[in-house]
Design a protein that fits this description.
6 helices; four-stranded antiparallel beta sheet; single chain; about 160 residues; Elongation Factor Tu (Ef-tu), domain 3; DNA binding; two-stranded antiparallel ribbon; alpha+beta; SpoVT-AbrB_dom
Length: about 160
């Protein structure tokens, strides 16, 4: 009887240890699956906030995604304070040299000041020409300070489009 009780205890110990190992493996698999389900931004990088809330869209990111002056970027911004992470979401227009501006209300609300470091997550890129066609090209040229001398015929064509 003593031997059979020992055997039962051994079996319980073996089953119990395997079960706890299986539970541990299942937990790890579920965690890995949850991490895979987390959506990723197009790009993520830290940057320093400049005067008037300007931040820079890094040159390699601009080149990779063909982001130009006048394009719009959907941005999530994170600012860490001690243990808390403040987040904001906005649409920014890209200016010369890749500058974007964090809206003043957002800067005030989460306490972003010049010299602070923030994490920038690029969510989407909106190219005006995809939405507006030829009018976007005209707007892009205005933003670049470009102009053209036109003939009377070109003037008539332009006026007839309007």
């Amino acid at each position: 009887m003593h031997k059979s009780a020992n055997m039962v205890n051994r079996i319980k110990n073996i089953i119990g240890s395997k079960t706890s190992k299986h539970i541990s493996i299942i937990r790890k698999l579920k965690e890995a699956q949850r991490m895979q389900e987390t959506p990723e931004p197009l790009a993520k990088y830290p940057t320093k906030v400049m005067v008037q809330g300007r931040i820079t869209l890094l040159t390699p990111i601009r080149e990779y995604y063909n982001i130009e002056l006048g394009d719009f970027i959907e941005v999530i911004i994170r600012k860490k304070d001690n243990e808390k992470v403040h987040r904001g979401h906005f649409l920014a227009r890209v200016y010369d040299k890749g500058y974007m501006t964090i809206p003043k209300g957002l800067r005030d609300e989460i306490g972003i000041k010049p010299g602070d470091f923030v994490e920038v997550l690029i969510v989407d890129i909106i190219k005006p020409e995809e939405l507006l066609g030829d009018k976007a090209k005209f707007l892009r040229n205005i933003l670049r300070g470009k102009y053209e001398i036109i003939t009377r015929d070109q003037e008539i064509r332009i006026l007839s489009r309007a």
